[in-house]
Write a structure and sequence with these properties.
Number of helices: 12
Largest sheet: 2 strands, antiparallel
Distance between the termini: 44 Å
Length: 289
C-alpha cells in the first residue's frame, strides 16, 4: 500500500510539472496575442506582413516587416543546409567509426561549443568572419546575411551532433550484426540500418537546430549588420529577433512603435510554432507510413 501511495505521489508531481509547463506556454501565447494584436489592427495585417519598409522613428513611420520575415527564413534555411549535414556526418563518425581517444576529444570539443555564450560567437564573428568576408569577396561590408548563416550553422552544431550521437548509440547492436552477417559493408550498415533506426532522434536534433537558429539574437545582431534591408547574401540585414531587441529599449511605452515590436514577437512565435508543427506532422506521417 505504501508503495502504491508513493507511485501515486510521483505521478501527481509529474502531472503538476507538466501542467505548469503547459500553463507557461498558454500564458506566453495569451500575452503575445493581447500585446501584438492592437498594432496589427492599427497598421493593417497586409501592410504589416508584406510591407517592405521599416522606419519606426521617421516623421512618417512605416511598419512593414517582410524584410525581417524573409531574412529569418533565408538565414534559418541556410544555417540548416550548412549545419545539418556537417553535424549529422560528425555524429555518424563519432558513433560508428571514431577511435575511442578521438571520440572522447571530439565530444569534449562539441560540449565546449555548446557552452560558449552567444555573445562570444558574435564577437569572434565580428572580429574574424566579417573582415574575412569583406576581403575574400571584395564587398564594402562583411556584416551580411552570409556571416549570419555561417555563425548560426556553427551554433546549431552542438545540438545536432549530441542528440544525433545519442540516437545512433541507442540502436541495438543486433541490428548491425544482422546486416553485417548478410554481407553488407560497415558503411552500408551505418546508413541503411543504424541511421533509419535512429531517424526519430536525428529528426529531433534537426528540430532543436531549427529552434536555435530561429531564436538566436545577440550573435546575429553582431554579424548581420542589423539594417532593415530586403535579404541579400552580401547585404546587411535584420532578423525578426534582432528587430525586437534592437528597438525595444528606447521604444516609448504605449507607442505604436512598441506595440509593433510586440506584433513582431507574435509573428516570430507563430513562425516557430508553425515550423515545429510542420516537422512533427511530417515525422508522424513518415512513422505511420
Amino acid at each position: 500500500m505504501t508503495k502504491q501511495r508513493f507511485e501515486n505521489f510521483v505521478h501527481g508531481i509529474f502531472l503538476l510539472l507538466g501542467l505548469i509547463t503547459v500553463a507557461c506556454v498558454l500564458l506566453i501565447t495569451v500575452y503575445l496575442v493581447i500585446s501584438g494584436i492592437p498594432a496589427i489592427g492599427k497598421i493593417g495585417l497586409i501592410p504589416f506582413l508584406f510591407g517592405t519598409t521599416w522606419a519606426s522613428t521617421a516623421a512618417q513611420p512605416a511598419y512593414g516587416i517582410l524584410p525581417f520575415i524573409l531574412t529569418s527564413i533565408y538565414g534559418t534555411a541556410g544555417a540548416i543546409l550548412v549545419g545539418v549535414p556537417v553535424g549529422f556526418f560528425t555524429a555518424v563518425y563519432l558513433a560508428k567509426a571514431a577511435p575511442a581517444r578521438v571520440k572522447s576529444l571530439m565530444e569534449g570539443a562539441v560540449s565546449l561549443l555548446a557552452g560558449i555564450p552567444s555573445v562570444v560567437y558574435g564577437l569572434v564573428g565580428m572580429m574574424v568572419l566579417v573582415p574575412g568576408i569583406r576581403v575574400l569577396f571584395g564587398v564594402p561590408d562583411g556584416a551580411s546575411l552570409l556571416a549570419a548563416i555561417i555563425v548560426l550553422a556553427i551554433m546549431i552544431l552542438p545540438s545536432i551532433v549530441k542528440v544525433s550521437l545519442t540516437a545512433l548509440e541507442a540502436v541495438p547492436q543486433e541490428y548491425e550484426d544482422a546486416s553485417l552477417a548478410l554481407g553488407a559493408t560497415p558503411v552500408e550498415t551505418w546508413f541503411r540500418v543504424s541511421v533509419p533506426a535512429a531517424k526519430s532522434g536525428i529528426a529531433a536534433a534537426v528540430v532543436l537546430g531549427v529552434g536555435r537558429a530561429i531564436g538566436e539574437t545577440m550573435a546575429v545582431m553582431m554579424v548581420a549588420g542589423n539594417a532593415a534591408n530586403m535579404p541579400s547574401i552580401f547585404q546587411s540585414v535584420r532578423f525578426l529577433t534582432t528587430a525586437v531587441s534592437s528597438e525595444m529599449a528606447y521604444a516609448p511605452v504605449g507607442s505604436l512603435q512598441r506595440e509593433a515590436l510586440f506584433s513582431i514577437a507574435l509573428v516570430l512565435y507563430l513562425f516557430i510554432m508553425l515550423c515545429n508543427a510542420a516537422l512533427n506532422f511530417f515525422l508522424k506521417r513518415e512513422k505511420e507510413g
